[in-house]
Amino acid sequence: MTTTGTDIVELDRIAVHEALRVVELAQAEDWERDTPCTGWDLRRLVAHMAAQHHGFAAAARGTGQDPDSWREPTDMSEPARTHRAAATDVLAAFAEPGASEREFALPEIGASFPGRTAISFHFVDYVVHAWDVAATLGVRLDLSDDVLDIALTVAQLVPSDPAGRGPGFAFAAPLDVPPDAGPLDETLRLLGRAPEQWPTKD
Predict the structure, then answer these.
(1) Mean of the pLDDT values across residues 51-59?
(2) Beta strands at 111-114 and 103-106: parallel, antiparallel or unpaired
(3) In angstroms, what is the C-alpha Rg of the chain?
(4) How many distinct structural domains can be found in the chain?
(5) Range of the domain at 114
């Protein structure tokens, strides 16, 4: 399976809306909870998510090379509100005519990429980050198998070279994938998450 012919902007929108849903389930006492992102509580994770939204929005508009576009918000007193504003920004940027045909400068990776490819990075990142938030709160994701199958396709393309995985990089080292893993579990494990360590309430 490839992503050729796939409406990656629509898939990204679905993933971002699911991330919005689970972030907005968080209560005041949840923001200090540990998350699957080692060393980050939920407030810090959501700050990172907001920063990535703004950074990708800038990249879609041709200004992604500016490091300020990727900085985490300094005011995280209302994490869900800050995250929603950032998500609105990136969804609007990706929906602009021709966005998926532009070159996106992604300084964290140190390169520029065709729009569709860059948006696919954002898409799989938000499937995984939506799961990070859901796992922190002990709830399940609500994403269809069709969406998760494409996320797995993208995850399988992420280089697994140890030199580019682990602390300081976008993803931890990949974990072994059991033969009976579904598309979400396989995606998570390929990107360094251990879903069995984060049981859900339902």
Answers:
(1) 98
(2) antiparallel
(3) 16
(4) 1
(5) 8-197
Of 79, 96, 73, 69, which is closest to residue 19 (Cα–Cα)? 79
Distance (Å, whole) CA 173 – CA 126 = 18
Separation between Cα atoms, residue 90 and residue 85, nearest integer Å: 9
Residues 63 and 73: their CA atoms lie apart, in Å, by 18
- pTM for this entry: 0.93
Where helices occur in the chain by DSSP H, the ranges are 8-23, 42-60, 79-95, 115-137, 145-155, 183-190
The reply to whether 2 falls in a domain is: no
Determine the Cα angle at 131 with ends 93 and 140, to 5°.
120
CATH of the domain at 169: 1.20.120.450
Place of tokens 């399976």: 1
Three-class DSSP category at 34: strand
Phi, psi of 81 (to 5 degrees): -65, -45
8 close to 120: Cβ distance less than 8 angstroms = yes
Instruction: Give the residue, 199 or 40, on which the prediction is more confident.
Output: 40
Token pair of 45 as six digits: 């994770």
Position 1 confidence tier, pLDDT thresholds 50, 70, 90: very low
Element (H, E) at 65: none
